[in-house]
């Protein structure tokens, strides 16, 4: 299925009114000033207008956003923005998360900040190494390119670990913004303390251009495992274990695609990360979108590089976590045909996205409303060449939120999708 069903404002209002109360609860007032809106068989979609705040993340009824030189917090899914603060580097925000207790952790390219009082105040958080010492960003050769230390490709980072919330994420970096180390970060105290859970090694391909010959390389010198960036991290409660996947290819320095399995000892505040597999780019293990449902692991592949027998080993797969390294035990649920590394599941619904530069779709959305039994693809081409990433779970009005990126990774707009009953 490849459809795009944009509607004009009058048609949209008519359809909404005809649908009655079943629709009314899901649309907020600023929807009708949206830059783009429409529907198809499976979901409604809307894009806020350019003069509205850029909603960077959401959780339940809350949304965190920025506009010009301000950061903003809403408690009614973006209908109003009662909490505002000046923040000169607002346009450099690359990451944010709303914690269970209401704390907001957000980051520019290389600095991390926390607000515990609805943005009345915020303070910088200095990341800690596993030994408790400070982990400081490097001094960039080019001050305009400090690297993306905290930016993520996935959108969900908070996990219920035996009744306690853990924040765990990895940086998707070394694409824009300068060279940067590749790390996994975590917090067990609602963002008050953020530590490094894992550091990848020194990748010779992604170092600062023009750095002095005696300048230390970026990355952990004691780790031979290298990566370009992290695609996704997710938690499997059945195993009490985290899974991480990285990109991208072998650039003559070793494979950059890895799956890691990590366990955390809360009492000792210690991680144990074990590599599961390391492969090249034309592999279903070059992927993202880890989801754990009913004891099974789901993921979506963006295999590329040199095709093998004129095909790429990509698609949406399912397997038992204990058998993920054995391809003969995988079940291929659907092959969208094009690269994708973003997928989220909630309440029986899978939403995934195409990588625009590798797809004939303008803005490709992959959808399943029945836990992956059947799949559809839609092209929201009215939005142009866009790739969806950083997908958030539904807010309390029932809308998924995602970033739309120009081409692949340059920030563009925000898109909301609401599943139909």
Layout of SSEs?
Elements: E1 2-3, H1 9-19, H2 21-24, E2 36-39, E3 43-47, E4 54-59, E5 62-67, E6 70-74, E7 83-86, E8 95-98, E9 104-107, E10 112-115, E11 123-125, E12 158-161, E13 164-170, E14 183-187, E15 195-199, E16 229-236, E17 241-247, E18 257-265, E19 270-279, E20 287-293, E21 296-301, E22 316-319, E23 331-334, E24 342-346, E25 349-353, E26 364-368, E27 376-379, E28 386-392, E29 400-406, E30 410-419
Parallel strand pairs: 1-27
Antiparallel strand pairs: 2-3, 3-30, 4-5, 5-6, 6-7, 8-9, 9-10, 10-11, 12-13, 13-14, 14-15, 16-17, 17-18, 18-19, 20-21, 21-22, 22-23, 24-25, 25-26, 26-27, 28-29, 29-30
What is the CATH-assigned architecture? 6 Propeller
Low-confidence blocks of residues: 1-34
Q: Can you identify the CATH superfamily? A: TolB, C-terminal domain
What share of residues are in beta strands? 35-45%
Strand order of the largest sheet: 1-27-26-25-24
Please tally the β strands and state the result: 30
Give the fraction of residues assigned to helices. under 10%
Distance between the termini: 19 Å
Q: If helices are DSSP runs of H or I spanning 4 or more residues, what is the number of helices? A: 2
For this structure, the CATH topology is Neuraminidase
Derived structural class: mainly beta
> Mean pLDDT, rounded to whole units?
91
